[in-house]
Write a structure and sequence with these properties.
Layout (H helix, E strand, L loop, with lengths): L4 E4 L35 E8 L12 H7 L6 H7 L5 H9 L3 E4 L2 E4 L2 E2 L2 H35 L6 H10 L21 E8 L8 E6 L2 E6 L8 H14 L7 H6 L16 E4 L4 H20 L3 H4 L5 H22 L23 E6 L5
Parallel strand pairs: 5-6, 9-10
Antiparallel strand pairs: 1-2, 1-7, 2-6, 3-4, 7-8, 8-10
Length: 365
């Protein structure tokens, strides 16, 4: 089963990168605003990927991040010596196996994109301007979609349905921006992994997928149902296609979490993708307009930012766009983050407020 996890890590720090300048002899003497010497956790890293055994972040062990930062500009291992960065051959090899580091005749280059402060600020300004331009175009349908969610009885889950379903799931259809499964293969994972210099100011927000079951989350979330129980629930949902589940053991395991009642009836939204109902048609229309605009904007954007391909550029740029979209929706009062995502002690029964099920009707027998 594909465990698609899009990980969004946000921290706050102020910095400036000086890649084009001569790197000092020791990493310990780096200026506080430089990429070199800046801790991994101070960056805003994103992994848009699917993986079978190892997530790309799992290759960032020991001081491997320092090695990657050192080889943003190509060099041999003597560069690490001159910077005072300890390393061994196993570390270098691990980063190569994870496809985060490449080598050519002994010259190493970091494969993942790491943006400096000025690039990060520039990209986020471009994203904000892009959203200011596209939002008036999609706003009427956004308002109708939110209204239709309420009519369907999904008012409590509106924030998660807009963020996680519309902006972080539906748009990654092959007709729109594509799936991580169809991105470049990196051995143990496929997709794109990159780092912005610093975080945005809002909470860390993301989406975890367990087959047809999806969960919106933030780092402030205080109620976490174990992955094992969610996967067991997902397997039952796959059997019943979203109808009442009958496995008593699974029902008992998730009792009180707002996913089913005591009889196994599903309590969270069940969305049918590709069934052409009002919600599906609105989601398709909005995401097609968004993806077409992103593709047009990014036709040469990747080259400006030294990104490996136009497709990778689209993925990176859209991940900034989605934050500005949700910020715009919140500022207009169209959506509001539920209390459970803010870390408030509302009770585990509200876990269902941030979960939903997607049944793809195009995959029916």
């Amino acid at each position: 089963m594909l465990n698609r996890i899009v990980t969004l890590i946000f921290c706050v720090s102020v910095a400036i990168a000086a890649i084009a300048q001569t790197i000092p002899d020791s990493i310990s003497t780096q200026e506080p605003n430089a990429i070199m010497g800046r801790p991994y956790k101070s960056f805003d890293t994103t992994a848009f990927c699917s993986y079978s055994s190892f997530h790309p972040s799992q290759y960032i062990t020991d001081n491997n991040w320092d090695i990657l930062c050192a080889f943003i500009q190509p060099g041999t291992v003597t560069k690490l010596d001159s910077l005072g960065i300890p390393y061994n051959k196993s570390q270098i090899r691990l980063l190569e196996v994870g496809d985060l580091l490449s080598s050519d005749k002994g010259v190493y280059t970091t494969s993942m994109k790491i943006f400096d402060k000025s690039e990060t600020e520039n990209i986020r300004q471009q994203s904000k301007e892009f959203v200011d331009s596209i939002f008036p175009v999609i706003e009427p349908e956004m308002r109708q979609l939110i209204s239709d969610f309420a009519k369907a009885g999904y008012a409590k889950q509106t924030y998660s349905l807009i963020f996680s379903y519309l902006l972080d799931l539906y748009i990654w259809d092959e007709e729109q921006l594509g799936s991580p499964l169809n991105c470049e293969d990196h051995g143990t994972w496929s997709g794109v992994y990159w780092a912005m210099f610093e975080s945005r100011s809002h909470d860390k927000v993301g989406t975890n997928g367990y087959g047809p079951v999806h969960q919106n989350w933030t780092d402030n979330l205080g109620y976490w149902l174990s992955s094992g129980k969610l996967l067991s629930f997902a397997r039952e949902v796959m059997k019943t296609k979203g109808n009442r589940i009958e496995n008593r053991e699974v029902i008992d395991a998730i009792t009180g979490w707002g996913l089913t009642d005591e009889k196994g009836n599903i309590l969270i939204p069940i969305l049918h993708k590709n069934n052409n109902d009002n919600i599906d048609n609105l989601c398709r229309s909005i995401t097609i307009q968004l993806s077409d605009a992103v593709k047009k904007y990014c036709s040469t954007w990747n080259k400006v930012h030294n990104i490996s391909s136009e497709r990778v550029g689209q993925i990176i740029f859209y991940h900034e766009v989605m934050w500005d979209l949700i910020d715009t929706l919140e500022s207009k009062g169209m959506v509001a983050m539920p209390a459970i995502l803010k870390g408030e002690e509302v009770g585990k029964q509200h876990f269902g407020d941030i979960c939903f099920i997607v049944i793809d009707d195009s995959e029916k027998d």
